[in-house]
Amino acid sequence: MSSHRTKDSINELKTYFNSVIDWVSSVFRDVEKEMQGLEWGRLYEQYHSKSYDPAKVSAEVKLLYGDPYVNNRRGVFEYILGGLQDSKLIDLRVFDEATKKSAYAKQTAAAEAKNSSNCPLCAIGHAANKSKIWKFNEMDADHVSAWSKGGGSLAKNCQMLCATHNRAKGNR
What we know:
Elements: H1 11-27, H2 40-47, H3 54-65, H4 76-81, H5 97-114, H6 120-123, E1 139-143, E2 158-162, H7 163-169
């Protein structure tokens, strides 16, 4: 915009501005207060060449707005435009099922080979659970590096802990 401030006519800038507004209006049916102040020019430049179904976008916005694990509602719009790929945009702090199952399988195979517990904290303990193999539904996914301290919900940062140890670990 600063490159246009010395021009006598604002027609080019007005046309661009209207293009951005028209694009946003065609992609997002529902207007949410979190849309105010977003970098729509940058988002337009990055995503306007892709095709979006406004009905699907609207359903996705409603779904994400209703999800208690979404901590950044302002990031919902770029998250949707980017194909639901970058969960950091919405501060999503949960692991998907595939990641949890993969971590469980990997930990369980390693634990069985060492005759120790598949919960890493049980395995180093002195209790009767030192060699217990927990079932998948008895374990919780844990962020190795705490989510609140920047640890992402990525496969490399996921470990499965027994429910007791996961709750005891807290924000460490």
